[in-house]
Structures are given as structure tokens and as C-alpha cells.
Design goal:
Elements: H1 2-6, H2 10-19, H3 24-36, E1 43-46, H4 48-63, E2 75-79, H5 107-114, E3 118-123, H6 159-166, E4 172-177, H7 183-189, E5 192-195, E6 215-220, H8 223-233, E7 250-254, H9 264-279, E8 283-287, H10 290-302, H11 305-318, H12 328-335, H13 342-363, E9 367-371, H14 380-385, H15 387-406, E10 410-418, E11 424-431, H16 436-451
Parallel strand pairs: 2-3, 2-4, 7-8, 7-9
Antiparallel strand pairs: 1-3, 4-6, 5-6, 5-10, 9-11, 10-11
Helix pairs in contact: 3-4, 8-16, 9-16, 10-13, 11-12
């Protein structure tokens, strides 16, 4: 019964909770039982006392007819970047473990607490959120539950968030996304991951990586779940986003960069989903987005924007013994930021503004679609020992999704099929900045079409 409960979506659990068929306290206890029996690398820290108090309060409200809404009593896990009162935010690092505990919740934690959600703990991640692969030498590396041969990566940096949902511990976990850190693990694990437009949710109390790129969003089982979390994060008591008909919808599929080196099985799953969307009336246009190539070239000549900002954030740590306690791969990548001059940084920002404007003119009101990642989740063990392989794989894993961060897009990854080794493939549907309502309304309708027989 425990696994049955914890493997449900928000919508399924909410029906049981609001009807009185399931008590929030029983659900919280079942959640902690499931966590105790699961991969210990998924969670960094549990907030059991808080969760049970929140569940008891929810139970009283629902019994007395005072429910706060659809999310009341629903368990949620938080990436270890969000401040939670009385707990230290470690950002997946031992370096921050000695810092004082947070004195108040992050704004988004408070928003979802106000909606009645039950915070069960903090989940694992790539150290300081600076990798798309999800390996963590300090707290362990969560194993992708879809692995059918040898252990495979869960993706990062929101690794624990994705696995907690995919393995059926919680129906939703919050993540952050600077270059793909929500959409990548969602795709690798066969769940839904929604990256909101940067600034859609308050960032107060969230440990940063690169403030000009950082964004937030949920990893969950369905698009409907993401819509409800989106509303609550913005302080709304109910979601106003409704399904939009697919017939006549225009969608752009870029023909450059995003398909370079794509695995045949990934391409097949993506194209099959595109055909299903076309059959449903979606108008597909394939064209080149020259800005994609310019972004890749800009990174090669000037360095990455995320690297420059991460370096200045962690410069003081890199210059002390703290660096010895950090993941060597995170240290190596962060130190590259020292080579990015102020003039180069300004050039990157200027180019970013120009490219955003150019792409906005080209795309217009259309949504954009391409594979979330060009390959399925790779094996863990080779990446642990081969740093060159790690760097190469990390770059390829992040390539497609980082384009959206650079261009300030919103995006949602939806499972679209199975690739090599029986691993999930993600379909990334994106919209221009601040078109989240359109993106989510289309995704509500497109989800069953995109997923096909995946579930």
C-alpha cells in the first residue's frame, strides 16, 4: 500500500485526501517509510518533525471543511538549494554543511507551505548545481530507477528531485534550472520537468549559481501537476491555465545544433512524437535558428556566461582550502571562469540581448520543439573515473537545454518514448520568455500525444 500511495500523482492523491479516503498524516508516514527503504543517496536531509506537524494541520483543516485547496496535504521534496527554517542549505556540498541553519523559508517554500503542502526534506544534487550529470562524491549519486542493465545517471543538477519522483517517493520535487537542471533529469528519468521563465517565481532564499540564468520549477508526474504547482508558487489559490486545442497550433523544429550527434533511438522517439502531433493538427515548420550556432561559438570564444558568474560567486572558496573539500570536477569547471575578462563578460551580455531579440522576431508566437537531450542516460561508473569523459558527456548533455536558458525561454520536458537500453527519451517544448501560460496550456493538451505509449 505504501508504494501504491507514494507512486501517485498530485491529482490522484488530492482526490483521496480531499474526499477523506486518505489522511494526510497517514500519507506522510507512508512517504517516510518509502524513503527509508529507498536509495539513501536520494535525500540529503529529512524534515520529519516539520512534515508530520504540517500533515496534522492539514488533516484538521480537511476534516473541518477548511481545506486550503488541491495541494493541501500533498508531500513535496526540495532541492538542497532552497532555505528551510532550522536546516542548513548545503547546495550538495560539504563546504556549506558547517554554515548556520536558515532562519526562514525560501519564498517558494513558504508559498507552497501556505498552499498546505508537506515538506518532507531536502534532496541531493550536483555540488553547487554545476553539472548536468548528477554525480555527487559527498552525499552519493542517486541511481536512475529506469536503469535496466548497470546503474545509470539520473542527470543534474536536480538529481535527487527527479529520482524522488521517478522512484515514487513523492509526487513532486522542486528544482532549479540554470542550463537544464530541471529538464535534463526529468528527461533521463521519464517524468515531467517544467522550467519557468526566469523571474516568474521569487528567488529569495535560493542559493544561486548564475543569477542571470537561474530559474525554478517542479519535477512531477504530469503537466497538470506542474500547472497546480505553478499557480501556488505565484500565490494563486487556483490555476487559471486551461487546455488549448492542438489543431492549428504552430511549432518550430530547429534544424541546426540540437540534432548534432543525436542517438538514432532518441531521434526516432522524437520524430514519432512529432508525427503524432502533426496528426493531431499541429503545424510543424522546420527551419534553422542561426542564433543557436552563434551561442555555441560565443561560448567557445568568450567562455560560458554561467562559468563567469559561478567563478565570481565561488572565487573566495577556490582560493582557500575549501577547494580541497569540493568535487574536483566542479572546481575545475568553475576555475575556467578566471579566464573570462570583464570585457568578454560584457560582450556576452550584449550578444545575449541581440540574439534574444533576433530569435523573438524569428519565432514569433510559435512554440519550439526538439529532443531534451541527444542521448539517453549514460552509465555512472565510467563517468566517476574518467574526467575527460565526464567533461565531454556533461557538455553534450547540457547543449540543447542551455540554449533556452541563454535565450530566456520557458520550457517543459515530457517523456516521448524509449531509447537505447530501455531508457526514457524527453521531448522539450519551449516558449519565448513570459509565454508560460501558453506553453503550459498547450502542454496540457499535447502531453498524451507526446507520451504516446510511454506509460
Amino acid at each position: 500500500m505504501t508504494q501504491t500511495l507514494t507512486a501517485m500523482s498530485i491529482a490522484q492523491l488530492s482526490t483521496l485526501l480531499q474526499s477523506g479516503a486518505l489522511d494526510p498524516v497517514a500519507l506522510a508516514e507512508a512517504t517516510f517509510d518509502a524513503i527509508a527503504a529507498a536509495d539513501p543517496a536520494i535525500f540529503i536531509m529529512l524534515s520529519k518533525e516539520r512534515a508530520l506537524a504540517e500533515a496534522k494541520a492539514s488533516s484538521s483543516r480537511i476534516r473541518e471543511g477548511r481545506s486550503l485547496g488541491l495541494l493541501d496535504g500533498i508531500p513535496i521534496a526540495w532541492k538542497d538549494l532552497f532555505d528551510m527554517t532550522g536546516m542548513t542549505t548545503t547546495a550538495g556540498s560539504k563546504v556549506l554543511a558547517r554554515e548556520p541553519a536558515a532562519t526562514q523559508d525560501a519564498a517558494s517554500v513558504e508559498a507552497l507551505r501556505a498552499a498546505g503542502m508537506v515538506a518532507v526534506g531536502r534532496v541531493n544534487m550536483s555540488e553547487f548545481a554545476f553539472s548536468g550529470l548528477g554525480l555527487n562524491p559527498h552525499y552519493g549519486t542517486p541511481v536512475n530507477p529506469r536503469s535496466t542493465d548497470e546503474p545509470r545517471i539520473s542527470g543534474g543538477s536536480s538529481s535527487g528531485s527527479a529520482v524522488a519522483v521517478a522512484v515514487g517517493l513523492v509526487p513532486v520535487a522542486m528544482g532549479t534550472d540554470t542550463g537544464g537542471s530541471i529538464r535534463i533529469p526529468a528527461a533521463f528519468n521519464g517524468i515531467v520537468g517544467y522550467k519557468a521563465t526566469r523571474g516568474r517565481y521569487a528567488m529569495d532564499g535560493v542559493f544561486p549559481l548564475a543569477k542571470s540564468l537561474d530559474s525554478l520549477g517542479p519535477l512531477c508526474r504530469t503537466v497538470q501537476d506542474a500547472v497546480w504547482i505553478d499557480a501556488a508558487c505565484r500565490g494563486l489559490t487556483a490555476a487559471s491555465i486551461a487546455r488549448r486545442p492542438l489543431a492549428g497550433l504552430e511549432m518550430v523544429i530547429p534544424q541546426n545544433v540540437v540534432f548534432d550527434g543525436v542517438e538514432a533511438s532518441v531521434l526516432a522517439a522524437f520524430e514519432a512524437a512529432v508525427q503524432r502531433l502533426s496528426d493531431a493538427g499541429v503545424i510543424v515548420t522546420r527551419l534553422e535558428i542561426t542564433a543557436f550556432g552563434e551561442i555555441i561559438q560565443l561560448m567557445a570564444s568568450h567562455g560560458a556566461l554561467v562559468t563567469a558568474e559561478a567563478y565570481w560567486l565561488h572565487k573566495h572558496r577556490l582560493e582557500t582550502d575549501d577547494a580541497l573539500s569540493m568535487d574536483r570536477r566542479v572546481v575545475s569547471r568553475t576555475r575556467l571562469g578566471a579566464n573570462i575578462s570583464l570585457s568578454a563578460y560584457i560582450d556576452i551580455l550584449d550578444a545575449r540581448a541581440r540574439l534574444i531579440a533576433a530569435v523573438n522576431r524569428l519565432v514569433g508566437d510559435r512554440l519550439i520543439a526538439f529532443p531534451t537531450i541527444p542521448h539517453v542516460a549514460p552509465l555512472i561508473e565510467p563517468l566517476k573515473t574518467d574526467d575527460d569523459l565526464f567533461v565531454k558527456t556533461n557538455g553534450k548533455t547540457l547543449r540543447n537545454t542551455l540554449l533556452g536558458n541563454f535565450l530566456d525561454w520557458c520550457g517543459i520536458s515530457i517523456p516521448c518514448g524509449i531509447g537505447d537500453a530501455g531508457m526514457p527519451v524527453g521531448f522539450l517544448l519551449s516558449g519565448l520568455a513570459r509565454t508560460d501560460e501558453k506553453l503550459l496550456s498547450v502542454a496540457l493538451s499535447a502531453e498524451p500525444v507526446i507520451c504516446g505509449d510511454f506509460f
